[in-house]
């Protein structure tokens, strides 16, 4: 019943899942449209770390080293292979850990931004920093050094 003029047959019971099905169809269509427009969404933190390790390994292995030539290149490739051998099992055993670490990093960044937002606004307006309940005195806020300012996170 996607057309608003359609009516159920007389005497037929309405489908209790019709609304849920219509919403699921709309959501799937919207997700497909966004994927087509924006490309695939990023993977989990573990998948992204694996991609990063692979990209760095590929880049380092492809570098041409002027000193030592083939010997140095062989050592670099061996070090890259060892690093991948160490990282891969950790990623395989603990994929959720990387998702939690990524979330924690985002939260820490948000906390930092919240802590310094007011300070940054004062920097832009070129106002001296003030502690709550205490007026700024001469030289306060720049530590008497003209330019550097203490951020009070209390």
Describe the protein's architecture and organization.
The chain has 154 residues and is mainly α. The protein has a domain at 44-125. It is 61% helix and 0% strand. It has four helices and no strands. The chain has helices at 18-38, 45-62, 70-93, 95-125. The radius of gyration is 29 Å and the shape is flat. Residues 141-145 have low confidence and may be disordered.
Quick summary:
With 154 residues, the protein is mostly helical.
Which terms summarize this structure?
single chain, 154 residues, mainly alpha, flat, DUF5304 domain-containing protein, DUF5304
Overall SS class: mainly alpha
Instruction: Supply Rg.
Output: 29 Å
Q: What would the average pLDDT be, to the nearest integer?
A: 77
Share in β-strands: under 5%
Regions with pLDDT < 50 over 5+ consecutive residues?
A: 141-145
Please count the beta strands (DSSP E, at least 2 residues each).
Answer: 0
Termini separation: 59 Å
Q: Approximately how much helix is present in the residues?
A: 55-70%
**SSE order, one letter for each helix or strand:** HHHH
How would you characterize the largest beta sheet?
none
Shape: flat
Instruction: List the total number of helices.
Output: 4
């Amino acid at each position: 019943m996607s057309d608003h003029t359609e009516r159920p047959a007389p005497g037929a019971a309405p489908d209790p899942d019709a609304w849920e099905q219509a919403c699921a169809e709309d959501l799937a269509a919207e997700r497909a449209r966004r994927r087509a427009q924006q490309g695939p969404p990023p993977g989990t933190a573990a998948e992204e770390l694996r991609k990063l390790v692979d990209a760095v390994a590929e880049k380092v292995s492809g570098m041409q080293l002027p000193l030592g030539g083939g010997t140095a290149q062989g050592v670099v490739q061996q070090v890259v292979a060892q690093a991948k051998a160490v990282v891969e099992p950790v990623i395989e055993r603990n994929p959720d850990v990387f998702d939690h670490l990524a979330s924690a990093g985002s939260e820490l960044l948000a906390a930092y931004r919240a802590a310094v937002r007011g300070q940054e606004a004062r920097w832009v307006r070129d106002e001296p920093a003030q502690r709550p309940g205490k007026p700024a005195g001469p030289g306060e806020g720049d530590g008497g050094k003209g330019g550097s300012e203490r951020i009070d996170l209390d």
